[in-house]
Q: What sequence folds into this?
């Protein structure tokens, strides 16, 4: 790389960092000006929510790896296999489709290609952005796992330094893997008529595959020590880099650490060179469209609400990242349903001694679990922002604004209903429920989905974001999405606390009262959201200037 090329590469990296900083500021405050950040009340709320969310994730992984550390004892290879695998899976789940967006689908790719800049340099800047994202994801797994290992096993000073170094090295491997997966997805999708549909199906199958694999492993008849020995044998014979990583940290082995670092770097460089040679082809390749002969037929007219709703649903399923991030609740419902069908729930007899009313507690718990997964389909939280530069069309159209809002709101229950129906059927098969239970198992989560949809539209109207170069930035990195998701979970979950506690403490407490508490509460908060959309929505919508 010449001196000029190197300086250009540094400039692109600088622009990438500035873009990420701007993205972070917008995520926190809805503003891109650092000087105005302290004036934003919303920014303060988002910061508090973010801190709570991050601490919750760190606590979860610390608890999980604490169990692993206690279980495996001094078998470092097994422990660090779990750490490495956890960091890779968690990062890829968050960035696998971001890799496609950052590398191949950024709106300014063609602008950069029109300049006298090498595709390798452009790709390096894009890869750095992806590396930073993977670093943030992996550190959430690796930091608590390190604390758990030090607390229960111990580590040498050299191992401590190597582990700190691995914070920066492991994301290099994840970035290389993400680039490879992104390229493979593009290569396959470029051969099929509907590349977005293929990417969406691939992501869903990948998540379901992880869940099914876990169920299969759980059913294998194998002792714990046999399972640990299998992992040791696998890492030493087929996953040598993971073995180097484990030994370097647990024993402070310099040679193995050098080998691990070289492996991660050596993997990334040829991947970037390989993709850079095909970068122009990737960017300029258009989606294959199957030609159909024109057949004259009468023009079908839809009512305005139906037409708007159809547009929203088509747009949702058009973006793989939209489906896999904002449709996570439906995916979790599917996984939970498969889990219950395969394993069921084993309830110890002693439970009924301490909780005579446990059957009712279990039924309400099932409803609460389905409702909380339903509101995780935060489809509407980025829906206003995703209109982008075409928002003026809706603003200037002679359409009742409430029809625009309702079309966005209705997408949430429509995509959530299949999961709710599936879990309702599974509950009827696996648990002792009657007709009344089945009705509320279906009705309450459906109502929660309506509420979540309205809340998402309200929050996105108040805090829209249009400074994006790729849709995935709005879907994953906007404050309205985080606030709507956590707000919906908290508000929806509040009545279930009382609905579960009362039958648990009072043996004669009728389950119908628990259902009534949740149903009336959700009707109330949904009505409040509808009233706010009706009274304040038009003013906020027309005031948006992107």
A:
């Amino acid at each position: 790389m010449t001196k000029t090329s190197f300086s250009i590469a540094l400039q692109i990296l600088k622009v990438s960092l500035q873009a990420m900083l701007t993205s972070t500021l917008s995520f926190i405050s809805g503003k891109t000006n650092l000087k105005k950040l302290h004036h934003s009340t919303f920014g303060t709320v988002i910061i508090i929510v973010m801190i709570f969310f991050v601490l919750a994730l760190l606590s979860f992984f610390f608890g999980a790896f604490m169990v692993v550390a206690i279980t495996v004892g001094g078998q470092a290879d097994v422990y660090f296999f779990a750490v490495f695998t956890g960091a890779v899976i968690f990062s890829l789940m968050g960035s696998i489709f971001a890799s496609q967006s950052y590398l191949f689908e950024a709106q300014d790719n063609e602008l950069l290609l029109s300049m006298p800049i090498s595709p390798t340099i452009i790709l390096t800047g894009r890869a750095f952005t992806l590396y930073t994202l993977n670093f943030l994801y992996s550190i959430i797994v690796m930091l608590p796992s390190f604390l758990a290992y030090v607390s229960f096993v111990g580590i040498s000073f050299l191992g401590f330094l190597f582990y700190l170094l691995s914070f920066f090295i492991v994301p290099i491997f994840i970035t290389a893997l993400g680039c490879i997966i992104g390229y493979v997805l593009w290569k396959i999708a470029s051969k099929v008529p509907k590349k977005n549909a293929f990417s969406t199906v691939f992501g869903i199958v990948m998540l379901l595959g992880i869940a099914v694999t876990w169920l299969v492993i759980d059913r294998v008849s194998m002792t714990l020590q046999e399972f640990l020995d299998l992992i040791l044998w696998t890492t030493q014979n087929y996953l040598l880099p993971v073995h180097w990583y484990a030994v370097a940290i647990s024993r402070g082995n310099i040679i193995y650490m050098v080998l691990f670092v070289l492996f991660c770097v050596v993997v990334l460089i040829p991947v970037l060179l390989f993709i850079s040679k095909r970068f122009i082809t990737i960017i300029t390749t258009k989606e294959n469209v199957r030609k159909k002969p024109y057949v004259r037929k009468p023009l079908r007219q839809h009512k305005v609400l139906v037409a708007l709703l159809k547009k929203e649903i088509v747009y949702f399923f058009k973006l793989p990242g939209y489906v896999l991030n904002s449709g996570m609740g439906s995916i979790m419902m599917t996984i939970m349903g498969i889990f219950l069908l395969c394993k069921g729930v084993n309830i110890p007899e002693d439970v009924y001694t301490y909780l005579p009313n446990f059957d009712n507690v279990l039924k309400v718990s099932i409803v609460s679990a389905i409702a909380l997964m339903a509101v995780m389909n935060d489809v509407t939280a980025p829906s206003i922002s995703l209109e982008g530069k075409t928002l003026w069309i809706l603003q200037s159209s002679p359409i009742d604004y409430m029809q625009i809002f309702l079309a966005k709101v209705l997408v949430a229950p429509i995509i959530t209903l299949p999961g709710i129906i599936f879990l309702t059927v599974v509950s009827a098969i696996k648990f002792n429920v009657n007709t009344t239970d089945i009705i509320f198992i279906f009705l309450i989560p459906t109502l929660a989905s309506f509420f979540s949809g309205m809340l998402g539209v309200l929050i996105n109207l108040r805090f829209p974001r249009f400074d994006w170069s790729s849709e995935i930035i709005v879907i994953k990195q906007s404050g309205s999405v985080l606030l709507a998701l956590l707000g919906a979970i908290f508000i929806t979950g509040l009545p279930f606390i009382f609905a579960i506690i009362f039958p648990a403490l009072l043996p004669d407490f009728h389950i119908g009262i628990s259902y009534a508490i949740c149903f009336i509460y959700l009707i109330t908060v949904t009505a409040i959201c509808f009233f706010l959309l009706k009274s304040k929505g038009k003013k906020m919508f027309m005031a948006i200037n992107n």
